[in-house]
Specification:
Elements (H helix, E strand, L loop, with lengths): L18 H7 L5 H6 L1 H18 L5 H24 L3 H40 L4
Helix pairs in contact: 3-4, 4-5
The structure holds zinc ion.
The site of zinc ion has 8 residues, from helix 2.
Length: 131
């Protein structure tokens, strides 16, 4: 059997995200992507956390957060499925992945709000009126 190329042509009709791009970044473009790339996401989501550290430098914190939320949804679905199928060890594994995403999210927020604070300070000092 040859490996099918069908999957690589998948594209999100809402934001235009392609499977190839999703594979590179590990980030969803929008909520619709979650449905389009769901299968792929389930396979790659566990490897994504490391990538996010690099990716987030080029995307906004909001985008990262949105993507993390979607990835959590994927994991939570898997978690429920694992419970339904009584795959206990898998469920525990998935649960710890969800916790990791939570931690990443918290750290991102810390970084993002620190940046914003610095930005605000700059704005205020620029606007300072000497007269
Ligand atoms: Zn999309």
């Amino acid at each position: 059997m040859t490996e099918s190329e069908n999957g690589a042509q998948k594209k999100c009709p809402n934001c235009g995200m392609t499977l190839a791009r999703f594979r590179r970044s590990g980030l969803f473009g929008c909520a619709e992507c979650y449905h389009i790339f769901r299968e792929e996401a389930e396979r790659t989501v566990l490897k994504v956390q490391g990538k996010l550290r690099h990716v987030q430098k080029t995307v906004s914190p909001e985008e990262v957060k949105r993507s993390l939320d979607l990835q959590k949804k994927v994991l939570q679905d898997r978690y429920r499925q694992a419970l339904n199928e009584e795959k206990e060890s898998e469920a525990i594994e998935i649960e710890s992945e969800i916790e990791k995403l939570d931690l990443i999210e918290k750290n991102d927020f810390k970084e993002a709000s620190a940046e914003r604070e610095a930005e605000t300070r700059t704005k205020f000092s620029v606007r300072e009126d000497p007269a």
